[in-house]
User: What shape does this take?
Amino acid sequence: GEDVEQSLFLSVREGDSSVINCTYTDSSSTYLYWYKQEPGAGLQLLTYIFSNMDMKQDQRLTVLLNKKDKHLSLRIADTQTGDSAIYFCAEGAGNNRKLIWGLGTSLAVNP
Amino acid sequence: GAVVSQHPSWVICKSGTSVKIECRSLDFQATTMFWYRQFPKQSLMLMATSNEGSKATYEQGVEKDKFLINHASLTLSTLTVTSAHPEDSSFYICSAKDSGEKLFFGSGTQLSVL
Assistant: This one.
């Protein structure tokens, strides 16, 4: 069945780059998403990538997609303490764009 | 960007009572809305897909008689937790899909059932 996996924890120093990885199984996924959830808050769409793209850059965020390996990554440059949150990877499946979610990666940024 | 308003942000209720959660798309029409549940330190679990003007489609294991979903207009979907019990305590989040491929999320509702 459809599945999305990502590592549960990542710890980085302030100013370093963070790379959060995700693998998915549905090769028919059209869109892949990264969401951010801050403590006590709802989800915030960070960025998304269409499956025919290899890379998408948006300010400090870089998304890389390896469709052959079904691997998605999110790189945050110059990570700040305000980036501490849980980052969810999700793939869009089905005609209604039902999202299949990973368990989320908890990013801790140390001063 | 598009805004989805979810209300209330938190609610405490007595066991056996019903609670209604509203999800509104403020600046776009949402033909499809989704309801999720999130337990602490777990991922989002899709509960149901709500299409305007038709019955909601529930995911396996979700009781449709307990979690009533109404999507009567293009900008409003409601989730009613009927006869709530402590095990229903959770974080509920809605999302709405615009005409494109983006999903926009509400800020969530923390439900505590005493």
